[in-house]
Design a protein that fits this description.
heterodimer, A: 2 domains, four-stranded antiparallel beta sheet, 10 helices, rod-shaped, B: alpha/beta, six-stranded mixed beta sheet
C-alpha cells in the first residue's frame, strides 16, 4: 500500500510543471504555431494550385472567330470545328454558346447586364488529349487556306503570369514560414532562459546533489518538447479549422484573393509540422540551457 | 604549446579528505573574506567549524563542496587539486560529498521521499533499488509518516531532517553541514548528532559549521575556529 503511494508520487517531474510562465508560454507558442500552420498550408496549397493552373492552361487553347455577320460566323465556326475534329480526334472540342462567351468576357467588362446586340467573338475551346499533338500553327494555316481567319490563344501568356504569381506566393509563404519558425526559436530560447531563472533554486539543488549539466539540460529539453507538442497541437488544430473554413465556397466569395483548396491528406503535413515544432523547441531549449549551465559552471 | 590535459580523479593515497593551502577568497573586487586559510581534514575525522556570524564559515563550506571558486591558493579534495581536474572528475568528487545547508534547499513541488531520493535519481539509480533504503532512513530520522508530504507542510525541524536524510542517503565520504541543528529542539538536536556520530564511526568525515557551543562540547572532535576570514586556531576537543 505504502509502495503504491510512493510509486504515484515519484513520477513527479524534477522541474516544476506549474512554474509561473508555463501557461503564458504555451499560449504564445500556440499563436506562433497557428501562424506557422497558416503559412505552411498556404505554401502547400499555393504550390498545388499553381501546378493545377499551369497544367490546365498548358493543355487547353481558345480559338476566336472575329466575324460580325452571324450567318458567315456560323459557317466559319462549322469549318473550324470540323478541321479541329480532324486534326485533334481525341481532344475535347467545345463551341461555346453566347452565354458562356459572355461569361468569359465578364472579368474584363465587369459584372453588368451586357446588351444583347453586343458583338462578341465566337469561341471554341480545346482541351487537348495526351495522344494529340498540341501544335496549333498547322491548323491556323489550314483554316486561312479555307478563308477562315482565327485568333488562337494557347494561354502561354496567362500561364507565364500564373507561374510568376504562384512562385511569388510560394516564396512569400515560405519566407513567412521561416520567419515564424525563427520567432518560435527565439521564444523558446527566451522561455528557457526565464525558466532557468525561475527554477534557479531547483537547478542549484540539482547541481549540489551532483547533477551533470546534460542531466539538467535533458529536463529542459523534455519540458520544452512537451510544451512545443501541446502548443503545436493547439496552434495546428486552430490553423486547420481556419483553413477548412476559408476553403468553403461561401468564404471564397467573400475574399478578393482566391482561397486555395484544402484536402484532408494535408493532415500528414500538419502532423509532421507538430513534431517539427516540438523538436525545434527542444533543440532550442537544450542549446540554451547547456550554454547557460556551462557559463555557470565556469564561474564556479 | 601543449594544452594542459586535465587529470582524472586520483585515489587519495594519504588520509587527507580536504586540504586548503594559503587559500584566499573574495567576491568580485571586494576585500578578501577568507585569507591565508590552511586547513586539513583527515579521513574519518569529526570536525566543527565555529565562529561568529559573518566570519566566513558558510563561504569556507561552499569552497569545500565546490560551490565557490577560490581567488587564490590550493584546494585539494580526496587528493585531487580541483583547479586541475576535469569537469567529469568534479562530478565524481561531488557525489562523494553530502551537503546540509541552513536553508534546507528542498524542492517545493517534490515530496519528502522524492527530495531524499534526489541524489540517487540524479545518478541514474532505479527507483526499485533505493525505495527500501529511503523508507528506512526516513523512519530513522522520524519522518516515516511524512514521506508523501510536500516541504511547505513540514516544520523547520522536519525540513532539516529531510535535508540531512538527503545528504546521507548516497553514503558520502564527506558530510558538510551548515548549522544542522539550528532549527530543531534539543532532543532532536542530540538525535541528529548521534546520526552524525554513527556516520563518522563508519568512516565518514564530518565537517559541521555551528555556533552552538553545547553541540561542540558534547563530542570528541577537531574544532576549527574562524574569525574575520582567518582560521585562527585549530585544536582538538578533549572534553569528550
Amino acid at each position: 500500500m505504502q509502495d503504491k503511494s510512493i510509486k504515484k508520487l515519484t513520477s513527479n517531474p524534477l522541474l516544476d510543471p506549474n512554474s509561473n510562465n508555463a501557461r503564458s508560454l504555451v499560449f504564445t507558442l500556440s499563436i506562433v504555431a497557428y501562424l506557422a500552420t497558416i503559412a505552411l498550408l498556404f505554401s502547400v496549397t499555393m504550390n498545388r494550385m499553381s501546378t493545377s493552373w499551369n497544367s490546365a492552361l498548358e493543355n487547353s487553347a481558345t480559338i476566336q472567330i472575329l466575324v460580325e455577320n452571324p450567318t458567315l460566323r456560323e459557317v466559319q465556326v462549322e469549318i473550324t470545328f470540323k478541321n479541329l475534329k480532324e486534326n485533334y480526334p481525341n481532344s475535347e472540342i467545345t463551341v461555346l454558346d453566347k452565354k458562356k462567351s459572355l461569361d468569359m468576357l465578364k472579368p474584363w467588362l465587369g459584372n453588368f447586364n451586357l446588351p444583347d446586340d453586343l458583338p462578341i467573338p465566337a469561341l471554341i475551346s480545346i482541351n487537348f488529349a495526351e495522344e494529340d499533338n498540341k501544335d496549333l500553327t498547322y491548323i491556323s494555316a489550314a483554316l486561312k487556306n479555307e478563308g477562315v481567319i482565327v485568333e488562337i490563344d494557347d494561354h502561354t501568356r496567362w500561364s507565364d503570369q500564373v507561374k510568376k504569381s504562384a512562385i511569388a506566393l510560394k516564396v512569400g509563404s515560405t519566407a513567412l514560414l521561416i520567419l515564424i519558425f525563427s520567432i518560435a526559436i527565439f521564444i523558446s530560447n527566451y522561455a528557457t532562459k526565464s525558466a532557468l531563472l525561475a527554477q534557479k533554486n531547483i537547478i542549484n539543488i540539482l547541481l549540489q546533489v551532483g547533477a551533470k549539466n546534460i542531466f539538467i539540460s535533458k529536463l529542459f529539453i523534455k519540458q520544452a518538447g512537451i510544451r512545443g507538442l501541446i502548443s503545436g497541437l493547439y496552434g495546428v488544430s486552430l490553423g486547420y479549422f481556419t483553413m477548412v473554413i476559408m476553403s468553403t465556397e461561401r468564404m471564397k466569395e467573400v475574399f478578393i484573393i482566391p482561397i486555395p483548396n484544402f484536402y484532408w491528406p494535408d493532415i500528414i503535413y500538419l502532423l509532421l509540422f507538430i513534431i517539427g515544432f516540438s523538436i525545434n523547441c527542444s533543440i532550442s531549449a537544450g542549446l540554451t540551457s547547456m550554454n547557460i549551465l556551462s557559463k555557470k559552471r565556469r564561474r564556479r | 604549446m601543449f594544452k594542459k590535459k586535465k587529470s582524472k580523479v586520483q585515489i587519495a593515497l594519504n588520509n587527507e579528505v580536504v586540504r586548503f593551502e594559503r587559500l584566499g577568497l573574495r567576491y568580485g573586487r571586494g576585500p578578501e573574506i577568507l585569507s591565508d586559510v590552511d586547513m586539513c581534514l583527515n579521513k574519518g575525522s569529526f570536525n566543527f567549524l565555529t565562529g561568529p556570524s559573518g566570519a566566513g564559515k558558510s563561504s569556507l563550506l561552499k569552497l569545500c563542496y565546490m560551490d565557490l571558486k577560490q581567488s587564490r591558493g590550493l584546494i585539494s579534495l580526496f587528493g585531487n587539486d580541483i583547479s586541475s581536474i576535469s569537469q567529469k572528475a568534479k562530478y565524481s568528487i561531488k557525489k562523494r560529498i553530502g551537503v546540509i545547508l541552513q536553508d534546507f534547499r528542498l524542492i517545493d513541488h517534490l515530496t519528502v521521499f522524492e527530495n531524499v531520493a534526489l541524489p540517487l535519481r540524479v545518478s541514474g539509480e532505479k527507483r526499485r533499488n533505493y525505495t527500501k533504503d529511503i523508507c528506512e532512513l526516513l523512519q530513522w530520522v522520524g519522518l516515516g509518516d511524512r514521506m508523501d508530504a510536500l516541504p511547505k507542510t513540514l516544520s523547520g525541524g522536519e525540513k532539516q531532517r529531510a535535508a540531512i536524510a538527503r545528504a546521507i542517503i548516497s553514503k558520502p565520504d564527506l558530510i558538510i553541514a551548515d548549522e544542522p541543528t539550528g532549527n530543531v529542539d534539543e532532543v532532536m538536536s542530540k538525535r541528529l548528532l548521534k546520526l552524525f556520530i554513527e556516520m563518522n564511526r563508519s568512516g565518514t568525515t564530518i565537517l559541521i559549521a555551528t555556533h552552538d557551543k553545547k553541540l561542540v562540547k558534547g563530542i570528541n572532535a577537531n574544532i576549527l575556529n574562524i574569525e574575520n576570514g582567518t582560521l585562527i586556531n585549530t585544536n582538538f576537543n578533549s572534553s569528550f
